[in-house]
Amino acid sequence: MEELFISHGASIGFWCGDVKLLVEDIRELRPTTFCTVPRVLDRIYSSLIEKISSGGLLKHTLFNIAYN
Question: What molecular function does GO assign, one term (predicted)?
Fold first, then answer.
């Protein structure tokens, strides 16, 4: 799969190996395509929902408008 992407001009980036730093790695790499397993997506989603919920009514409302 990597070779296919590279042959079409894509660049490949790898995470540092620490799940706790995965979001920082994603922020730095800014991937167009992100291959992962469902458990990692669940963790990212849970973290996002937790931050939105603790951000107050305005942030929660804006999130719901943007993603629903």
Answer: ligase activity, forming carbon-sulfur bonds
**How far is Cα 3 from Cα 12, in angstroms, rounded to an integer?**
10
**Token pair belonging to 6:** 């590279």
Domain ranges of the chain: 1-35, 36-68
SS (H, E, C) the chain: CHHHHHHCCCCCCCCCCCHHHHHHHHHHHCCCCCCCCHHHHHHHHHHHHHHHHCCCHHHHHHHHHHHC
Residues sharing a CB contact under 8 Å with residue 57, sequence separation 6 or more, in sequence order:
none
Closest CA to 36 of 16, 15, 53: 15
Q: Which residue carries 């997506």 as its tokens?
A: 41
Tens-place pLDDT, residues 19-40: 888 888 888 988 888 888 999 8
